Amino acid sequence: MPKVQVLDVTGQAVDEITLSDAVFGVEPNRVLLHEMVVNYLANQRQGTQSALTRSEVAGGGRKPWRQKGTGHARQGSIRAPQWRHGGVVFAPKPRDYGFSVNKKERRLAMKSAFSAKAMDENVIILDKLALAAYRTKDIASMLAAVGACKKALLVLPEVDEKVVFSARNIPGVKTAQVNTLNVYDILNYDSLIIVKDAVSKIEEVYA
After folding, report:
1. Strand pairing report for 173-177 and 13-18
2. How far apart are CA 167 and CA 139, in angstroms?
3. Which one-letter DSSP state was computed for residue 44?
4. CA 48 vs CA 37, 45, 76, 96, 114: distances in Å
5. By C-alpha distance, which of 78, 47, 46, 48 is closest to 62?
6. 60, 77 in Cβ contact below 8 A?
7. In what order do the strands lie in the sheet with 173-177?
8. Residue 155 carries which DSSP code?
9. β partners of residue 126
């Protein structure tokens, strides 16, 4: 079982925690991780692109010139695709790009993401995180103290408005709760900072 030091907000080790092998010690399944990242990005697409086909463009109801004898190529409408202001061939239309992944695959992908972070020693466990006021400076100093100077995902056991509002002004920092975690965010951020109380919730859900 992987062991990780528990740090306080000043970066000092105050305890040691043993992470569950069932969540943080499995062999990462790269195929599933890729599938879940593609799934997340596909579900984020709005799919609102739209263009007009030749049947939807206004005008063009009259044949521009007679079929034969003009020296021009035959034409049936000035709204055909080869004309300026004509319709679009195979015009894109609004659609849903999302697709679903079954529950077992989602769970295994989450375990793989947690384990990949643990293997790379990018999991940081915080003893607790509580702010007396809305202060971005306090979150920034905590991140520097624990060595998370790049992109960091801060996992809270429950919604804490002071922490959420204080962290959202820092570029590259995102807060999440156990029930809002996803594979894309875990892999996208360099450091995974988990408050100690959230670790037990993660292991309870995914172990």
Report:
1. unpaired
2. 6
3. H
4. 21, 9, 31, 9, 34
5. 78
6. yes
7. 13-18, 3-7, 123-126, 191-195, 152-156, 173-177
8. E
9. 7, 195
Mean pLDDT of all residues in 192-201: 92
Six-digit token pair at 123?
A: 């999991």
Cα dist from 84 to 87, 92, 173, whole Å: 9, 18, 48
**Number of residues assigned to the chain:** 207
**Which residue in 125, 162, 179 sits closest to 147, CA to CA?**
125
Both tokens of residue 194? 């988990």
- Compute the distance between CA of residue 79 and CA of residue 91 in angstroms, rounded to an integer: 14
CA distance 189 to 42: 19
* pLDDT one-digit tens code per residue, 100-144: 999 999 999 999 999 999 999 899 999 988 888 999 999 999 999
